[in-house]
Amino acid sequence: MAAKQTPYPDTRAPHPEAARAARPDTTKTLYLNLLGPVEAHLGATPLNLGGAKPRTVLAALLMARGRVVADTELTALLWGDRPPATCTAQIHTYASRVRRLLGPGIDVERRRPGYLIRLPEHGVHVDLLAFQERAARGAAALAAGDARTAADTLRDALACWRGEALGGVCDPLVVAGRDRLEEERLAALERRMDADLQLGRHGELIPELIAEIASHPLREGLRAKLMTALYRAGRQADALAAYRAARATLAEELGLDPCAELQRLHQALLTGHPSLLQPRPVPTAAVPAATAPVAAPLPAPAELPPAPVRFTGRDQEVLRLSTALSDHRPRGGEPAVHVVTGMIGVGKTAVVLRTAHRVRHRYPDGQIHLDLRGSGPDPLEPADALAELLRLLGVAPDRIPAGSDDRVRAYRTRIADRRLLLVLDDAADERRLRPLLPVTEGCAALITSRCALPALDGVGRIALRPLPAADARGLFDALAGPARTAAEPRAADAVVEACAGLPLALRIAGLRAAARPLRPLATPARRLTAPHRALDELALGDLSVRESLMGGYRRLAPPGRRALRFLSALGPHPVPPQTAARALGVGPDRAEDLLDGLAEEHWTERVDLGGGPGHRLHPLVRLFAGELLAREEGGVPLPLPVRSGAGVPLSPPVRSAAGPVLPAGAAAGLLPPVRCAVGVPLPLSLGPAPVRVRAGRAN
User: Fold this and answer.
1) CB burial of residue 690 (10 Å; 0-12, 13-18, 19+)
2) How far is Cα 695 from Cα 441, in angstroms, rounded to an integer?
3) Which of 79, 237, 343, 393 is paired with 472 by a 20 to 30 Å CA distance?
4) C-beta pairs of 97-100 under 8 Å, 24+ apart in sequence
5) Cα angle vertex 211, ends 34, 10, to 5°?
6) CB within 8 A of 322, min separation 6: which ones?
7) Which residues, listed in sequence order, are joined to residue 24 by a DSSP beta bridge?
8) Which one, of 551, 528, 529, 530, lies nearest residue 538 by Cα?
9) Helix or strand or coil: residue 287?
10) CA distance 306 to 286
11) 658 or 516: which leads in pLDDT
């Protein structure tokens, strides 16, 4: 269905004049506007913010509400997946421009790892903050039973809007922020309509509801209000026709039936239930709403990072997850929980974020993203994660319980009876994850983890593999530029082949190529096919294949690290446990346990060798582990000649730097050390690693 522009009533007062009318000394007031074109006025004088990028920096800092916006987040909002090499310096320039234009009263502060903006208590008017404050007061009045005050206050809040929010900013910020702000506008609009229905204004609402439904055909709350307004206006047949239209649209667009509320309303329309003629009952305030001190509720959290702009090759996985989260019908109060696993750099977060943005309209009470740091050396502990979740759900820091168990109870109470989407990124293990999972229907969780998390029961699982060749080439073409890759197809193929389908590697290679338009693709192709240079080539800014792998490597136990290092010397083919046992100097059962542990954390891939399982390393993981083998063991062991059940060698013979291919009998350990391509001695012993003493500690 083609998207329609959201209608904004002409009765909304122009800005900044409407806001200035309520404030003294408006000639010295600074107006910062986000709910329409992003702009700034000092009194009646517009300030020249410049192009889209400084406007984006200003809008991102204001929307963060005092939170530090990291350089990486600003980079994504300014350039998407194609940042220039000088992005950090350019961000500094844009922040300095904003600071200079807004004057000394506004503090645009450099706070590692990014920037934040501090606003004074007086003299600055931000239309977004004014809207949110008025919308909160209107919601509180409606909850207190004062429909007239609610309608007037919410109408004032909606008057802050001057069109589609975030006009004139960079596209990634539009993608990340406009829908969130539009959701807040629609929530305020629906509350104002509820107040108007209670005041008997159903006849006036019908044209407005029809216009809003044309722009938001999947919003079932608007459909319910239209059906109610039509019925109260004496148009029962039209109300029933409105239900049929809602059912047809939901079936065509999503394959869903109307929600339970719409179905109950439909039954009431068929029977002419008397409750339809009365406003909905609301709680009565203990004191008049005008004098009761009501705390303004925070808007629903909308914490999702931007979805990846260039997304290739995971359409089936995204469709499967989106369908599961949209069509989920809980049984016995179970929430929808889905885990996406795979090796480091395979694109787990991209798949989850793409899915989360696609289904966020199904979770109107908020969407939360939390980085659990599971692949790094310092994973987030459950107590700290719960504190962050409670803060995002509106709990003041001084009201967060001290004990872990109390935090779990407070968290579960907070999300009960809400439709909330949680994105729990990079989970380390089940122990750290369990306390964070929703336990009631209506909520959903998308989890990424390098570990398979086998101890979690009743969850959906998707394991991502490296991209097929065609999808890998498509991703590289999109990042480097189709014209560029078409001009050098063989070099582009070589780059893609060297990346071995790993999205992180393809993304880095494509972005590096785009940042160096005068360098032929033959140069990165040559470097990537040189084993001693490949990982150096796969680094750009804060993206690095080697550093990403190193973060996960540090999480491995020492026996797992050693097994990974020694596997790199056994060639590119699948290795059976018996061969690994001889290489590691351990028994077959121990070798099998070590290999299975590496496979569960997606360091190796299990394959069927016919007579039993085998394990192989991704080519880039093998390069990484080979580097560590040379550094940690002081050399690279000579591979054993292994044969599969069909008699096909699984590990090719080793070639020295300047000598011929070594005979297979060299594996017996009878030949003197040789040297590999990087000049490191190759010890022939494959027994247990010697104990080393470094800085007084055994390693």
Assistant:
1) exposed
2) 54
3) 79
4) 97/49, 97/50, 97/54, 98/49, 98/54, 98/57, 98/58, 98/61
5) 50
6) 355, 358, 359
7) none
8) 528
9) coil
10) 44
11) 516
Q: Please give the helix or strand (H or E) that residue 270 lies within, else none.
A: helix 260-271
| Highest mean pLDDT: which range of 458-462, 477-481, 495-499, 685-689 | 495-499
Distance of CA 137 to the CA centre of its chain: 32
Q: Which residue, among 468, 470, 433, 471, has the nearest Cα to 450 in the 3D structure?
A: 433
Q: Report how far Cα 211 is from the mean position of its chain's Cα atoms.
A: 33
Write out the DSSP string of 165-209.
Answer: SSBTS-HHHIIIIIHHHHHHHHHHHHHHHHHHHHTT-HHHHHHHH
Non-local (6+) Cβ contacts of 347 within 8 A are: 314, 464, 467, 503, 504
Cα 52 from Cα 47, distance rounded (Å): 14
Question: 468-490: buried (b, 16+ CB within 10 Å) or exposed (e) per residue?
Answer: eeebbbbbbbbbbbeebbeebee
d(CA 612, CA 498): 29
Separation between Cα atoms, residue 433 and residue 525, nearest integer Å: 41
Helices (H), 41-126: 52-63, 71-79, 87-102
- Residue 169 token pair: 């900013």
What one-character-per-residue DSSP string does 504-548 give? Answer: HHHHHHHHHHHH-TTS-THHHHHHHTSTTTHHHHSEETTEEHHHH
> What is the C-alpha separation between 145 and 148, in angstroms, rounded?
9
Burial 221-240 (b: 16+ CB within 10 A, else e): bbbbbbbbbbbbeebbeebb
Which residue, chain included where needed, has tokens 């070594």? 662
How many residues does the structure list for the chain? 699
pLDDT tens for 487-512 read 999 999 999 999 999 999 999 999 99
Q: Name the nearest CA neighbour of 144 among 281, 284, 291.
A: 284
The verdict on pTM exceeding 0.70 is no
Consecutive H or E run containing 132: helix 127-143
* Identity of the residue numbered 53: K
Report the alpha-carbon distance of residue 346 to residue 335 in Å, rounded: 27
Cα four-point dihedral sign 549, 551, 554, 559: negative
What value, to the nearest 5°, has the Cα angle with vertex 133 and ends 130 and 137? 135
Residue that has been written with the tokens 């039993």 in this structure? 612
Write down the number of H helices and E strands in the chain.
28, 20
> Whose CA is closest to 370, among 423, 448, 409?
423
Strands 444-449 and 336-341: parallel
Rounded distance, CA 195 to CA 335, Å? 32
Phi, psi at 33, each rounded to 5°: -115, 130
Residues 6+ away with beta carbon under 8 Å from 627: 535
Determine how many CB atoms are found less than 10 A away from the CB of residue 316: 9
Q: Is 357 exposed, middle or buried (0-12, 13-18, 19+ CB in 10 A)?
A: buried
641 Rama class: left (phi>0) / alpha (psi -120 to 50) / beta: beta
**By C-alpha distance, which of 184, 193, 234, 233 is closest to 213?**
193
What are 493's two structure tokens? 């193929």
